[in-house]
């Protein structure tokens, strides 16, 4: 069903309201039969998008309310979260920063609601990766991350005015000698990096970018 403006060819053009065969509805602007301009799209499952469209794709600025209660406000390109935006997750966590192809990618800040801790730094394809700072209640860690875990040189900075320098080392998985009759085991879980302290100092200007 459609009610609204049409162009000379009878295509939806201008402002209109439509109910789609799947039960979704759209109210907003059209250009020659396609959603283009500003509009609000309501999904049957309770999700809702309000923002800009270009040729039926979410494109430009828009807000998406997901069925689980989470919400994204920011840039879209070709139906993907892409550019700069803020995501409020269903558990109350938030991410504010850069996106590419629907994933956290570039510089961004992720705040954990439960602990109040936050990660400020680089992301690659949705994963914490690159120089960053992990800020806790009365201390913070400054270093580099790889695949979501800290790795390599870094320092803990304590609010009382001192620093603990060191590095995160990836422990080596010790493989036990296998008995022949044993079935194939599941691959072992990657071990957590281990923090190795080198010195404690007063506050210093060292940053993870210095090693690049």
Give an overview of the whole structure:
The chain has 212 residues and is mainly β. It has two domains: 68 residues, Histone H3 K4-specific methyltransferase SET7/9 N-terminal domain (Single Sheet); 93 residues, Histone H3 K4-specific methyltransferase SET7/9 N-terminal domain (Single Sheet). It has no helices and 16 strands. Strands 1-2-3-4-5-6-7-8-9-10-11-12-13-14-15-16 form a 16-stranded antiparallel β-sheet, with no helix packed on it. The chain starts with a strand and ends in a 10-residue tail after the last strand.
What is the topology?
Blueprint: E1 2-6, E2 12-19, E3 25-31, E4 34-42, E5 48-54, E6 57-65, E7 71-77, E8 80-88, E9 94-100, E10 103-111, E11 118-124, E12 127-135, E13 139-146, E14 149-158, E15 162-169, E16 194-202
Antiparallel strand pairs: 1-2, 2-3, 3-4, 4-5, 5-6, 6-7, 7-8, 8-9, 9-10, 10-11, 11-12, 12-13, 13-14, 14-15, 15-16
Features:
212 residues; mainly beta; Histone H3 K4-specific methyltransferase SET7/9 N-terminal domain; elongated
A few lines on this structure:
The protein has 212 residues and is mainly β. It has no helices and 16 strands.
Round the mean pLDDT to the nearest integer and report it. Answer: 93
Into how many domains do the coordinates divide? 2
CATH topology of the largest domain: Histone H3 K4-specific methyltransferase SET7/9 N-terminal domain
**Beta-strand content:** over 45%
Give the end-to-end Cα distance, rounded to a whole number of Å. 59 Å
Query: Which series of helices and strands comes N to C?
Result: EEEEEEEEEEEEEEEE
Strand order of the largest sheet: 1-2-3-4-5-6-7-8-9-10-11-12-13-14-15-16
Q: What is the overall number of helices?
A: 0
Number of strands: 16
Helix content: under 10%
**Major sheet summary line:** 16 strands, antiparallel
CATH domain class name of the largest domain: Mainly Beta
Radius of gyration: 25 Å
Unreliable residue runs: none
Shape: elongated
Looking at the overall shape, the CATH architecture of the largest domain is Single Sheet
Structural class: mainly beta
């Amino acid at each position: 069903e459609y009610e609204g403006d049409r162009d000379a060819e009878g295509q939806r053009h201008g402002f209109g309201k439509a109910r789609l065969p799947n039960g979704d509805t759209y109210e907003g602007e059209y250009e020659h039969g396609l959603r283009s301009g500003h509009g609000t799209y309501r999904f049957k499952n309770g999700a809702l998008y309000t923002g800009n469209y270009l040729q039926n794709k979410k494109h430009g600025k828009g807000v998406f309310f997901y069925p689980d209660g989470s919400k994204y406000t920011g840039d879209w390109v070709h139906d993907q979260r892409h550019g700069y935006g803020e995501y409020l997750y269903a558990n109350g966590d938030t991410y504010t920063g850069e996106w590419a192809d629907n994933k956290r990618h570039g510089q961004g800040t992720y705040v954990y609601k439960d602990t109040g801790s936050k990660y400020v730094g680089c992301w690659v394809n949705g994963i914490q990766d690159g120089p960053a700072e992990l800020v806790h209640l009365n201390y913070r860690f400054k270093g580099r991350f790889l695949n979501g875990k800290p790795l390599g040189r870094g320092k803990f900075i304590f609010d009382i005015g001192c620093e603990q320098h060191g590095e995160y080392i990836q422990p080596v998985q010790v493989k036990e000698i296998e008995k022949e009759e044993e079935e194939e085991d599941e691959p072992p879980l990657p071990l957590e990096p281990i923090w190795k302290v080198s010195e404690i100092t007063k506050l210093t200007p060292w940053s993870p970018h210095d090693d690049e």
